[in-house]
Write a structure and sequence with these properties.
By secondary structure, this protein is of the alpha+beta class. The chain is built from three helices and three strands. The chain has one domain. Strands 1-3-2 form a three-stranded antiparallel beta sheet. α1 packs across α2. The N and C termini lie far apart (41 Å).
């Protein structure tokens, strides 16, 4: 795991990708297109993701599996 301190508030791009179980490329593309709307902050040239904001994003975009009838 890249996240050295599990209680850290701000994650780097690779740490956020691991936290979300996605690729860094997906986060890079989303920052350009805004298609998924994953929240991030830009600090100069550095990109950071708030763990709280990522948790809220996951909650807002979670789905409930439905039973499929045969």
């Amino acid at each position: 795991m890249l996240i050295s301190d599990i209680t850290r508030t701000w994650l780097t791009v690779p740490e956020a990708a691991e936290y979300l179980s996605c690729s860094r490329s997906m986060l890079d593309k989303d920052r350009v297109t805004g298609l998924l709307g994953i929240p991030f902050s830009r600090l100069g040239r550095h990109i950071r993701y708030s763990r709280k904001a990522l948790d809220a994003y996951l909650e807002a975009n979670s789905t409930i599996a439905t039973e499929v009838k045969a």
